[in-house]
Amino acid sequence: MPHLIQQLSANRVLGGLRTGLAGCTLPAATLREGPARDDGPGAAWLVFLCPDHSEDLPAWPAAASHPDDGSMPCGSVLEYRTAEQQLQSHADLWLTTLTGVDPRALGYVWSDVLDQADRVLLARVEEAGADGEDSPLQNMLAVMGVACRAAAEGDLEVAATSMAHCETLAQSLT
Ligand SMILES: [Zn+2]
């Protein structure tokens, strides 16, 4: 129901597409509306969930829920936040847990945050390689590289998009 999406997002331009829940491709029956953006009208994000997962994803708390007739697969997230806010969300939800890199400790300088996370991942991949193993983090490194370069050039939109790919990869790690 595109009309409802436009209404809930206050006709904002989509800021990014994420996967909140990998592995379920059932059509959504619920549209979970996130909190209001802090800089104007419209929801910060919208999450689509199938009946089996409608109560899942506590990290994405609902401000309201709406019925949906399969407009997106389960787990899809439409982002309407700024690139900086999306990067912070990636840190909160998985990046800091995975790498130990805390944006606060680096003054929220995203080029430094991503660079340091990249180094941590590279060290782990090399460690696994030394033990004769293929690390599943290898796939993430290529995408992290794109995120690092984009952030270094000040293009946080591309960095946030790259992190959305990494987020999906991170969900397949365990
Ligand atoms: Zn589902």
Tell me what the structure shows.
The chain is of the alpha+beta class and 174 residues long. The protein has 2 domains: 2-79, no CATH class; 83-171, no CATH class. It has 5 helices and 5 strands. The chain has helices at 2-8, 83-99, 110-130, 138-152, 156-171; strands spanning 16-19, 30-33, 45-49, 64-67, 76-79. It has a 5-stranded antiparallel β-sheet. Helix 2 (83-99) packs parallel to helix 5, helix 3 (110-130) runs antiparallel to helix 4 and helix 4 (138-152) runs antiparallel to helix 5 (156-171). The model has no long low-confidence stretch (mean pLDDT 94). The structure holds zinc ion (ZN).
List keywords for this structure.
174 residues; alpha+beta; 2 domains; 5-stranded antiparallel β-sheet; 5 helices; globular; binds zinc ion
Q: Work out the helicity level.
A: 40-55%
| Count of domain modules | 2
- Rounded mean pLDDT is 94
Number of helices: 5
Number of strands: 5
Structural class: alpha+beta
